[in-house]
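Quick one:
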Amino acid sequence: MLARKLLNIVQAGNGNGWRHISSRIAIRLYSQFAQNVNDQLFNLSEEETQWRMAVRKFMDDEIEPIAAKTDREDNIPNLRQLWRKFGDMGLLGITAPAEYGGSASTYLYQALAFEEASRVSPGISLSLGAHGNLCVNQIVRNGNDEIKERYLPKLISGEHIGALAMSEANAGSDVVSMKLKAEKKGDYYILNGSKFWITNGYFADTYLVYAKTDPNAHQRGITTFIIEKDFPGFSVAQKLDKLGMRGSGTCELIFEDCKVPAKNIVGKVNKGVYVLMSGLDIERAVLAAGGIGLMQKAIEIVYPYVHERKQFDTPIGQFQLIQGKLANMYNAINVSRSYLYNVLRACDRGQIRSADCCAVTLYISEEATKTILDAIQCLGGNGYVNDYPLGRMLRDSKIFEIGGGTNQIRQLVIGRFINNHYLTPK
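Output:
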């Protein structure tokens, strides 16, 4: 209430009112205002709000203190201990059945966790997402009972770290053109080839890998396997030195006569594309929450700053051009949350539509970058130095326009959806 009153004073241009409140108190109040999320506006339940706040506290306590170091050194400190803490917090099996240690919860819950993790460290958040949103979810949706019993408990507890290996150096958006070959030899498959751009690849224990079991069948010849890090013939190549999302262990995987038991097939032989597509839309939508986390952090930095920083004896937040940027940030994050949360609720009801999953991801990824650029502009010279995390955040934000299919691919999916509607006979 007091923060709202303070906001009204500044928006009214009442310089005397501003001066009657100490700068330190004012900035604290603005920080509280900036951090507040009106979950009622987005129809979040009390339990969903409590979950958000619990995850936020965990991330503030455990992740924020190591975020800058993780980016600087491209390495997550005490990774294994942290993963155990993730498991204890319930972050590694949010949508997994309780019988394997999961929470049997919703994709909206998973997105809220990803949003809050991305608010403090998108790099660590990406690792968390690759583990839970990609690896664990795919096993939950497509693994048989024996595979689930063998792999899910350790992945969900944090004893093991998971990764998904789909892309290759020459198979990104056109992923079904992959060349990793799997040839059947008795009760085993022999894999030869490589994977590229694999998040968590550098330090994972369990890999969900897509390979061609019938190279002549294009998308109908792909099979999904679970690979363990110590399988003969499997190795990890160099860690990629990335622009952003540092610490997430992105690397190349090498398969040289890698021997994989046939019982490690997830789904059916030559039906890997169905495994891939079964979760792709949801994975994109959950990933989009990372952009919201970045926007939230940018707002928490900018709103207090522009009401402390003075030029011409006036807080710059009172200047109309700055107010325009603040308004754009406010609009972008609220529209993003509303659209994403509703798309995820539909996914949780089984009403998954590719066009909307792509559209919300496209929108949020672009708005996240715009918001961070506006935040840098609002801070002026301070936005350009690394005393503030905005530079790191800008580097991190770009991946949301590329990963999980580029924004251009998302536009194609949306365009085809619209065209198909008009081409379908009524």
